[in-house]
Structures are given as structure tokens and as C-alpha cells.
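User: Please predict the structure of the protein below. I'd like the answer in C-alpha cell form so I can feed it into my own downstream comparison script.

Assistant: Understood. Taking the following sequence of 373 residues as input:
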Amino acid sequence: MKVSAEILNLIPYKPGKPIAETQRDYGLKEVIKLASNENPLGPSPKAIEAVKLFLMQQHRYPDSVGYELVQKISEVWRVPASQVALGNGSNEIIDLLIRIYCEPGDSILTSESAFIAYQVCAQAARVRVRTVPLRSDLTMDLKAIADYFFRNPTMNIRMIFIPNPNNPTGTLVGGEELDEFLVRLGNRDDVLLVFDEAYTEFVRDKNFKEAARFYKDYSNVLVLKTFSKVYGMAGLRLGALLAPEYVLEYYNRVRNPFNINDLAQVAGISALEDEEYIANSQKTVWEGLDYFYKELTRLKLPYYPSQANFVLFDTKRNAEQAYVNLLKKGLILRPVQNYGFKTFLRMTVGKMEENKKAIIAIEKMLTEVSEVG
């Protein structure tokens, strides 16, 4: 059977290297993984208890619409329940939205070095990806994105993805720039503005404006949320879409009827209620970031201040060589050459003892891998 050129040329999403695989490859007993922006605290204790209690119900199909979880999201996030839908992680939501609103040959628009899932999902659907360069400080240029949209009407740009904060840079957009972007592109009926807000709970920048607070004012603004980060549920695969009812009508037609298992549903409800756990997650990340900033400064390694739970820093070395050297020391970080950063690594905040061991390994690596010329 013939396969389309888009599929033949598709580079699949490459997740962070697993701990067990690293242990096998290098004969290690202890491995620290700071590669996948996971919550180092593990899931909420309340979520764990909820899952245990529901294990005996696994012979039943889950609630196909996640009614109780949707009601809890509506209550905690202060959004109408009629504007909430669930996904098997935010990646499934991205994939379904592109399939719903784009035809082969249409385009989506985002920034260079934006979350790679947009590229993968679009290419799999035979949809073109258009990008606009980042600024020198690695922030997205919303004015340039809007200009690109208006200058290229024949490209059939159906969706604009705004990861805010962005992965892997940790930077965000907000303030007057965001207001002007919404004035120019909000409430149009020919393009959807998708704000991907996986990391908003970690933002400390007062310039930030959360789309979950203003999306109801615009008929074409959608918001993606995830339970993988501050809620510590990456393994259970749970995401949420906040959107107008007309979008959810089509979304719920296309998604699989049991895309969210009931363990994820009950865990999500309990995680949303566990305010102490959420506060601890935030505190862990903020203290870890501040520690990384201090140590990277001491090591004279440039970095970009982050509004997420990771930091992007310049090793000043070939990133693949630095990455492999650190693997042999039992530290898994994330190389980001596929985003265009040839000498950079991305490092997730872990527990403080993990953060300290990571810095020790990085400092030793600097003496073993030569700087690029």
C-alpha cells in the first residue's frame, strides 16, 4: 500500500529517555530523570487514594463524558461546564482539533521552537505548518504572527497555536502585546486561536494573562489544559479543552467515547481538590528554579528565566555529547536540537536533592566535554 509523503517524512515525537532504559544501557543503579517536565512529588496523595478505591470498578466502562470531573473543573477553574471537554492528555486534543478544522493542504501557524506536537499532529493530517521566528530573548512575537496571517490569505491558515508559557523555552507572552493580538484576530470566523496553557500554575511573571480567564470573551479562542504538570498525573493521561459550545459539539463527535479512563477521572477530581499538594508543587518548582539560576550563573552557563517547571540552558558544547556524558553519570536531561538549539539542554526541576546531584554532574561534564569553537 502507498503511504503519503507527509507520513513517510514524519519524524515522530521522541519522549524523554526512560530511567529503566538508561540503567540497562549504562549499567547504573541510580538514575535521575529531569527530562520530561514531570512533577517530582508524584501524584497527589488524595488522587492516589481515589484511584485505589476505584480499582474494583475496572470491569465497567468509564463515564464517556466524564460528568463529575467536568463539574469539578467548572467549579475550581470557574468556567461553564458546557464549555469543558476532556482529552487523553492535551496531545489528543491538539490532534483532534487539527483533524476537525483543517483539510489536507490547509495550514496551522505557530512560532519557531514551539511545542513539537503541533508539527507532528499537523503533518500526520497532511496539514502544513507555518512558523514565525522567535525574538532574540526567545519570546513569541505575536505581532509578527498576526502580520503573517494577514499577509498570507492563500495559505488557508485555520488555527494559530500559542503555547503560553512555551516549551522548551519557558518564555511567555502577555500584556499589551497579547491585547493587541486579540484585537486583531479575536472573534474572527476564519481562524481559531489555541492557547496551550500546560504550565500556567508555575508562572510568576505579573505580566501574564491566563487565557482561561478571558477566552469566554472571544468566539474563536480555545484553551488547552493538562493534568500532567502541577497535578502530577502524566501517566494517567488527562487533558482538558475550554472552548465555545460550537467547538465542543464537533470535538465530542470525533473523540473516542471512552478516551478518558475512570481512574484518571477520579484522580483528576481529587487532585483539583488538593490545594496543599498544588501549593507544594509550586513551591518545589520555584525553589528549584532559583537554585538552578544561582548554580548556572556560577558555572557561567547562560540560561533563559523560565515561567514553567524547567530551565533551558546553554552548555556551550555539542548538546548530544553533553547529553550522553550526563547519561553515563546517571542524569537524564533533554536535548533540544530538534527545536533548533544545538548547544542547549532542557532541565526539569526535581526534588532538591536531585537538583543538587544534577548540578554536580553538569559541573563534572564541563571538564570532560570540550566547548564548541
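That's the full C-alpha cell string. The first strand starts at residue 32 and ends at 33.
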